[in-house]
Structures are given as structure tokens and as C-alpha cells.
User: Fold this.
Amino acid sequence: MASSAKKAKVESTRMPNWLELPIDLTKNILQRLDTVEIVTSARNVCSLWWNICKDPLMWRGRRTINMSGYQTRQFDFSCLEKICRCAIDLSCGHLEDIDISLFGTDDLLRYMAHRASYIRRLRLFRCREISNKGFSEFVKKFSLLEDLDISFNNLTKDTVEVIGQCCPLLKSLNLEKIRSSDCHFIDQACAIAKTMPGLRHLKLTRIVLPNTTLIAILEGCPLLESLDVKECHRLYVSRSLKKWCHEKIKDLQLPDSYVDDRYVIFDHDDDLANADTRRYIC
Assistant:
């Protein structure tokens, strides 16, 4: 009997009572969990954790919903969208940063636009159910957006122009075309040059970017500090153009191959154009 009591006493000293932790410490621990863990697990542990997880002050400290990297074998898309909506509600309007992969829809954007209009960073990775119409309609609500990272197959020039016109504080843009085939997309890059003069950081992946459009971006976005276009199509950089780019951009990523200075500009039809390197066609 004595040995059993002694054993129980030892075990009790090894297993702390989490409910006795100071509230601030418990909040700090819970804030380190990701969004899915909080919504599906942590808040269901006990009434104390439930109340902490629904406390706007806790979400005011997080300000972030990260739901990238979850595969369909863990949750189906409809379940992930429900979790995301719940997290948006819990944030009580304090949400500033949201990262979504695969499951985003126009309906989710609508929900977000009405309940999280203070978003400053938005990442939408391969969300095939988000349409140009839906994105154009609801990005108008995100006037405080500073950082946009979006991968797509059919983002139109008009949608890019809406982004530039409705998000005047936008400083960082990452556009990635999902498939490299059927790559006749030049107008999006031209829209960036025309509507986003405040950009500091720009990355384009699998986008058609002739030399003329690259020059248009450099002229239209004079505040650029970093530019990554090393995976763009139809970009044939001469050494003189490379030098000019480096003079304007601190952090520059260009394709590895170069062409003779006599062949520096290609037009929409991909024919050689005899024109000055500073003239552009957007």
C-alpha cells in the first residue's frame, strides 16, 4: 500500500496539471498551434481552453490563419473551408494574414471580404475554384492589402488591373502560372506595369515576359527593390539590358542565358523588332 501511494505521488509530480498554468502562459502555448489544430482539437480539450480559443484577444496576437499543406486525405475541401470560416469568425476582425492552399472558393472569398477586411497579406495557392469574377469582386474589399501571392491558370488582365486599382498599398506581388503550357499570357505583366507603381517586390513565374514588357515594368514600378523573373517565358536578355536592370534593381533574378545586344526586343508575335531598348509595347 505504501509503495503504491509513493508511486502515485511520483507520477503526480511528473504530470503537471495544465489547468493550473497561468492564463497568459496557456494563451501563449495555444497561440503556437496552427489554425487547424486550434479549431479541430485544442478548443475541444476543456471549457478553459474553449474560452481561451474564442477570446478575440488571443487572435489579436495571432492575426494569422495558415491553412497550407493540408492534403485531402486529412480533410476534404468542404471541411477545410468550414475550419477556415470558423477561424475567421474567431479572429473577430483582427485577421491580417491568411494562407490557403487548394480549397479556396468564391464563396470563401465573399465570407472573408465581409469579416476580415483588414487583411494585409493574402496567399492563394492553386485554388482552382476561385474565378476571375469572384476575385475581382472581393479584392475590392481588401484595400489594405500589402502582400499578394497567388498561383493561377486563367487570371486575366482585367483582374490584375482591379488588384492594382483597388490595393494602392500593395508592395509585394508573386504571380505564378500553374502550368507552363498554353502560355499566351502577356497582358497580365503589362497590367502590373500600368497599375502598380508602389511595388517593392515582384516575382513572376511561368508568365510570358518579352523584353519590352520587362522594360515596361521597370519604368512603371520605379520603387522595385527585388525582381525575380528567371522562370518567365520569352525573356531574352542582352548584356546591355542586364546591366540596365542591375542599375535599377538591388535584388535581381534573371534567366541564366543571354543574347547578343543586336537582338534585344521581341514583339507580341515573337519576331525580332528593330527598336530602342527603352521603348515598350504595353
